[in-house]
Design goal:
Elements lengths: L2 E5 L2 E4 L4 E8 L6 E8 L6 E6 L6 E3 L7 E6 L4 E6 L8 E9 L7 E2 L3 E6 L1
Parallel strand pairs: 2-11
Antiparallel strand pairs: 1-3, 3-8, 4-5, 4-9, 5-6, 7-8, 9-10, 9-11
């Protein structure tokens, strides 16, 4: 079992930045791909960004491409989401997820951290 805990959310103004962290425990993070999702009130959960096990491959939702950067530090069992130029529409609960290589679905999920962007 892998336990994921997100942190770093908060209330910020539009145009500013936040860095979210995802702390993994229970299994070596190096063996897993990681992603960030978000869910706004009354909306479906939305994919944000994905990174492969060693950080060599990343991809993003169109809505965040060029503003957000996903990364992971396997030595520290940590994942990150650097969010720049935040917009009010980025307001959501952000969740990190991990999956073993070859899996389609994500095996483990965190509880989420709230990000609120005011205009």
């Amino acid at each position: 079992q892998m336990h994921l805990v997100e942190s770093g959310g908060g209330l910020v103004q539009a145009g500013t930045s936040l860095r979210l962290s995802c702390a993994a425990s229970g299994r070596p993070f190096s063996g897993y791909e990681m992603a960030w999702f978000r869910q706004a009130p009354r909306k479906e959960r939305e994919f944000v960004a994905h990174i492969n096990w060693n950080g060599a491959i990343t991809y993003y939702a169109d809505s965040v491409e060029g503003r957000f950067t996903i990364s992971k530090d396997n030595a520290k069992n940590m994942g990150y989401l650097q969010m720049n130029a935040l917009k009010p529409e980025d307001t959501a609960v952000y969740l990190c997820a991990a999956r073993a290589g070859g899996h389609v679905e994500y095996d483990f999920w965190g509880q989420g951290t709230q990000v609120t962007v005011s205009s």
